[in-house]
Amino acid sequence: MSREYETVIGLEVHVELATKTKIFCGCKTDFGGAPNTHTCPICTGMPGALPILNKKVVEYAMAVGIATNCEITKYSKFDRKNYFYPDNPQNYQISQLYLPICRNGKVEIEVGGVKKEIGIHEIHMEEDAGKLVHDEWEDVSIVDYNRSGVPLIEIVSEPDMRSADEVIAYLEKLRQTIQYLGASDCKLNEGSMRADVNISVRKIGQKEFGTRTEMKNLNSFKAISHAIEGETERQIELLEMNREVIQETRRWDDNKESSKSMRSKEDAKDYRYFPDPDLPPICIPDEWIQKVKDNQPELREEKLERYKKDYDISEYDASLITESKHLADLFEETTAICNKPKRVVNFILGELLRLLKEKEMDDSDISFSPENFAKLIELVDSGVVNSTVSKQVFGEIFENNVDPEVYIKENNLMVVNDDGELEKVIEEVISANPKSVEDYKAGKKKAIGFLVGQTMKAMQGKANPGKVNQILTEKLQ
């Protein structure tokens, strides 16, 4: 990016709420399912069908607003946003323009050691549209209304971000907060968290904003970063050629690393907003707000401080564990059983993260029980298995949630502590590796490591490495 310009970025983040039913009807919100099976006359926009507001949607919206330091609007309304899309069955979307449920919030982010507050203009509730499926083979587009009416909140930031790094930090903070609240799983790959990015550029020092464009429905952090960088360069090139940036909606193609125009950007007046006549205003008393506040769970910052104090683990380890609510829950539940927090942390940050990365899984997909995890840690600590075998057993727990005690017995993986058996194998290893023995006696003490490895291999990893080292040292001397 040219040093003469700075990027100005604001986000509209759509989050699907974790309610069991839709915002205005009793249809299921489960992801997937055969097309058009989670539908009814209300969410497919049938004439005469009347919406009824899901109370849980309001509570989730308030919880997110409280956690992001917003003011709760005690007298809130729904409005109709009128537009025609094939996946929008009513030809309008029920949303909130004039009196959104939350306003004037902020969250703190940190990028490169520098802390910064990002303002939240508002959070409003609305319904999702359906989904178009384009069949290129048949050359048709078909519509699935399962998603129509799924409850959303839209979190609208102030234009306070100046780089892709700040945007990602802001999104990470929102995702983390909302997951801790249990308000959404925020899975970008399933569309339960989506971001529209508003981008403009201006000369450094200029107070007025430049003309902005909007990049729609970006569903990965990688795509968001690339879209911001690509659109920034495009706008700067236009300005440097004395050409005008057009206010429009654009779509980012991550494969082509470029964007294309979708349509000119609508203003609020183009949507012909008016109050929804079928839904009464929402009156939120102080008692309801206080009840939501009282039920707020421990968020990441509080958890981080408690972990350092209660579990005596390093700030670095605590910060990694608490980045994910799923990992934090697993850590707490396992530690409550075995009371070995440092051992639990080491397994999570080592083997568990390795397996998640290797299998391209999300930590929300972890399905093994804390009981089996804790049992393995106790078996390692009591010397029943060594660290090498424990990794194999943990892999089985990860995949199949096996009982480690049963698995170890059935596969004869217990540590061999029989000195006679160990000495016999060690003597065979010494006889088979005279060069390493000579090296050790010549002062190359590292040569014993090779001999230990060969012994462990011969014992199929079931020996106690410390005992192997001790017996080898005695025999070589």
Automatic annotation (TrEMBL):
**Protein's UniProt keywords contain ATP-binding:** yes
The answer to whether the entry has keyword Protein biosynthesis is: yes
> What keyword terms does UniProt attach to this protein?
ATP-binding, Ligase, Nucleotide-binding, Protein biosynthesis, Transferase
Q: Which domain of life is it from?
A: Bacteria
Quote the EC number.
6.3.5.-
One short Pfam name that applies is GatB_N
- The chain positions of domain Asn/Gln amidotransferase read 329-476
Protein function: Allows the formation of correctly charged Asn-tRNA(Asn) or Gln-tRNA(Gln) through the transamidation of misacylated Asp-tRNA(Asn) or Glu-tRNA(Gln) in organisms which lack either or both of asparaginyl-tRNA or glutaminyl-tRNA synthetases. The reaction takes place in the presence of glutamine and ATP through an activated phospho-Asp-tRNA(Asn) or phospho-Glu-tRNA(Gln).
Q: How does it assemble?
A: Heterotrimer of A, B and C subunits.
Give the family per the record.
Answer: Belongs to the GatB/GatE family. GatB subfamily.
From the Swiss-Prot or TrEMBL record, give the protein name.
Answer: Aspartyl/glutamyl-tRNA(Asn/Gln) amidotransferase subunit B
- UniProt organism field: Lachnobacterium bovis DSM 14045
Give the gene that encodes this protein: gatB
